[in-house]
Specification:
By secondary structure, the protein is an all-alpha fold. 57% of the residues lie in helices and 0% in strands. The protein starts with 15 loop residues before the first helix and ends in a 5-residue tail after the last helix.
Length: 160
């Protein structure tokens, strides 16, 4: 398990091993750059909250089973468990899982693969967090005047 501050948030649904995998998974989807990554933005706590308070039992089981299956999927792809695989191996695995999720969406499969759900929750959790909305995106509580044609070079980042 990764080192964590015992006074910090504690998961209600995720096991320590699932949380370790989830933190690496969300930071592979949205890694730290000049802004914090998904785990620093609180996405693992967001996912745990969704699993505890919002997801139906079938969806919760599918996501948790998917997190548990990451080690075997990674071992099949790279010979190493998910947390021991390097960045390139993890990116390759998650790219394949993402491609499967895209195909499932196109086929209108129900339920979608666990990775489709986790990716959606990662993006939602990140871009609705304070970090995502104010440091990754630009945000104004009350927008100023309307300018219909502003060069992107003047705007900088996308607006939330």
């Amino acid at each position: 398990t990764r080192d964590r501050d015992p006074a910090a948030w504690a998961p209600r649904v995720l096991t320590a091993e699932q949380l370790d995998r989830l933190e690496v998974l969300v930071d592979t989807i949205l890694p730290p750059t000049d802004t914090p990554g998904a785990s620093e933005a609180g996405v693992p706590a967001f996912v745990d909250r969704l699993l505890a308070d919002w997801a139906e039992s079938e969806e919760r089981a599918r996501v948790l089973d998917g997190l548990d299956a990451l080690d075997e999927l990674s071992r099949e792809a790279s010979g190493l468990v998910f947390l021991e695989a390097g960045d390139d191996a993890r990116i390759a695995l998650l790219s394949e899982l993402d491609a499967q999720a895209v195909r499932a969406r196109e086929a209108q499969d129900d339920p979608l693969p666990f990775f489709a759900t986790l990716k959606e929750w990662t993006l939602t959790g990140y871009y609705t967090s304070e970090v995502g909305a104010t440091r990754e995106l630009q945000w104004l509580a009350m927008p100023g005047r309307w300018d219909a044609d502003v060069p992107l070079s003047e705007v900088g980042r996308t607006w939330a």
